[in-house]
Amino acid sequence: MPNNLLKGKKGIIFGALNDQSIAWKTALACYEQGAEIVLTNAPIALRMGEINKLAEQCGNTPVIGADVTNMDDLKNLLTKSMEHFGGGIDFMLHSIGMSMNIRKGNGYTGLNHELEHKTLDISAMSLHRLLQTAYQLDALNEWASVVGLTYIAAQRVFPDYSEMADAKSLLESIARSFGYHYGIKKKVRINTISQSPTRTTAGSGVKGFDGFINYAEKMSPLGNASAEDCANYCVTLFSDFTRMVTMQNLFHDGGFSFTGVTQAVIEQMEK
Predict the structure, then answer these.
(1) pLDDT score of 172
(2) How would you write 20-71 as a 3-class SS string?
(3) Cβ(227)–Cβ(255) under 8 Å?
(4) Number of domains observed in the structure of the chain
(5) Least confident of 1-10, 14-23, 129-138, 190-199
(6) Is residue 42 pLDDT above 80, yes or no?
(7) How confident is the model at residue 163 (pLDDT cuts 50, 70, 90)?
(8) What would the pLDDT profile of 68-100 be if each residue is shown by its tens digit?
(9) pTM for the whole structure
(10) In the structure, what pLDDT confidence band is assigned to residue 178 with cuts at 50, 70 and 90?
């Protein structure tokens, strides 16, 4: 139920591809909570996805294409967004990830390193580019909030998650480091959310995903967090109720991250 947690706030949502994506759900949740938003994705994703339908659902909000590996594109995105909002930006969601090696079927011990550079560029360095551009343009308002989506493979080994584990580790490091500098400059807070495995277009591309998500469900006391749950958590981090939370990697996974074993898993192993 809407209660205007984000009334008067203005933000940019990166990465909404279709109605399965966390970014899509987050855009809707932010709009329902009173925020004004701008939607963005890579030009090829805009052609492949259904983002214009989402824009209509969010009050015919603007859609501005941007290649997150291109500084000029990011500068254009932030400049046009500020023009649309008539001022600075209060929140941004970085929901961007693509593994070039996974797409090509290359296992972790046989990576194509040129492709790995592209994976890191798209999935992690893009956050640094975005924050650096915002920092230089003074695009973010005081107490603005930036959230990046990550996964626990940054801390633990999940063999088929491959090079994306490296990308998520870098993403989390960038959030901490830039969180310090942006916090000192303008009280901007930067966090990552480590979400449960979620049935999105990107997540479903990981080998063995069905087994992956079923295992997490059995290992989580509360079960897996859904895309809608994650969207609502993003809203709280964009709101004024979390002003003193920054530089954190926040596990949103039903308790998976701190559970050694569950009875359901023990029973499954004993069959």
Answers:
(1) 98
(2) CCHHHHHHHHHHHCCCEEEEECCHHHHHHCCHHHHHHHCCCCCECCCCCCCH
(3) no
(4) 1
(5) 1-10
(6) yes
(7) very high
(8) 999 999 999 999 999 999 999 999 999 999 999
(9) 0.94
(10) very high
Distance, in Å, from the CA atom of 74 to the CA atom of 138, rounded to the nearest integer, reads: 13
Q: The domain spanning residue 188 has which CATH number?
A: 3.40.50.720
How far is Cα 264 from Cα 215, in angstroms, rounded to an integer? 10
Euclidean distance between CA atoms 154 and 22, whole angstroms: 19
Residue 2 forms part of a structural domain? no
| Structure tokens that stand for 133 in this block | 């551009």
Arithmetic mean of pLDDT, 140-144: 98
Q: What are phi and psi of 39, to 5 degrees?
A: -100, 145
Amino acid (one-letter) located at 18 = N
Following DSSP, what letter does each residue of the chain receive, concatenated? ----TTTT-EEEEE---STTSHHHHHHHHHHHTT-EEEEE--HHHHHHS-HHHHHHHTTS--B----TT-HHHHHHHHHHHHHHHTS-EEEEEE-----HHHHHT--GGG--HHHHHHHHIIIIIHHHHHHHHHHHHT-EEEEEEEEEEE-GGGTS--GGGTTHHHHHHHHHHHHHHHHHHHHHHH--EEEEEEEPP--STTGGGSTTHHHHHHHHHHH-TT-PPPHHHHHHHHHHHHSGGGTT--S-EEEESTTGGG-S--HHHHHHHH-
**What is the domain range of residue 161?**
10-270
Residue 213 lies in a domain: yes
